[in-house]
Design goal:
About 40% of the residues lie in helices and about 15% in strands. It is of the alpha/beta class. The structure holds 2-phosphoglycolic acid (PGA).
């Protein structure tokens, strides 16, 4: 399976000029990286311009950080699957914990997944526990999230699904405050089992990424010991040279 690297810019940068510069630098720094599928997810307001700057090349794909999960147009402030696709995006991050902390329920997440797939977007679904406990209850938490978010997913759409395992407690932290690669390895096996229990052998087709305070300093260990198919990178993706180092590590493993 080809490794996947997702850049989540979150609510950065604050101007179009900076966004244009950032994608320019990322393109330049990643030009030499081979064998990694890369997806850059800027804020909605920059999707069209970043999409235009990515047109004509195959290395870096465009994604959104969210999507509206329903039909119709009377939804002030929302952004539809068609709008996102017409900006040149192929992917949508869905269910990021920073959105779910605000108000997004798993029911909403499930609807967003269905509408995105129906409209032709590939889905990067984020799951992950809020905290770890001694008794392993957090495994059930992740299982419930997966089962509820994927409740309506048809097996035939599995090839358009990516799971990003992001323990909420490890997002936005220092690079040494994340979970151990051994714990990650176990969780990836668990997520794979939940997927194969639900979808049979086809569940093995779904790439499983890790996200949460990935940096150029901790990425190597996560990649070599974590049993993952790729990474979802937040803050470090805003530093093109560091991001390129992470991409290089993925390409070599
Ligand atoms: P972070 O963000 O790498 O800055 O912790 C990860 C994410 O977007 O979830």
């Amino acid at each position: 399976m080809k490794k996947i690297l997702v850049a989540n810019w979150k609510m950065n940068p604050s101007s179009l000029e900076e966004a244009t510069n950032l994608i320019g630098e990322i393109k330049e720094k990643l030009a030499g990286v081979k064998g990694v599928d890369m997806v850059v997810c800027p804020p909605f307001i920059f999707l069209n311009e970043v999409g235009a700057l990515l047109k004509g090349q195959k290395k870096i794909k465009l994604g959104s950080q969210d999507v509206f999960g329903g039909e119709g147009t009377s939804f002030t402030g929302e952004v539809s699957v068609d709008m996102i696709k017409n900006a040149g995006a192929e992917y949508a991050i869905i269910g990021h914990s920073e959105r779910r902390e605000m108000y997004e329920t798993l029911q909403i997440v499930s609807e967003k997944i269905i509408f995105s797939l129906k409209g032709g977007l590939k889905v990067i679904l984020c799951v992950g526990e809020e905290a770890r406990d001694e008794h392993g209850e957090f495994y059930n938490y992740v299982k419930d999230e997966l089962e509820m978010a994927l409740a309506k997913l048809n097996k035939k759409n599995l090839s358009k699904l990516i799971i990003a395992y992001e323990p909420t407690w490890a997002i936005g932290k220092k690079e040494n405050e994340i979970l151990s690669p051994e714990n990650l390895h176990e969780m990836v096996i668990f997520v794979r089992k939940v997927l194969t229990d639900k979808f049979g052998e086809d569940g093995r087709l779904v790439p499983i990424l890790y996200g949460g305070s990935v940096s150029k300093n901790n990425a190597q260990e996560i990649i070599s010991k974590g049993n993952i198919d790729g990474l979802l990178v937040g803050r470090e993706s805003l530093k093109p040279a560091n991001f390129a180092e992470v991409a290089e590590m993925l390409s070599k493993n």
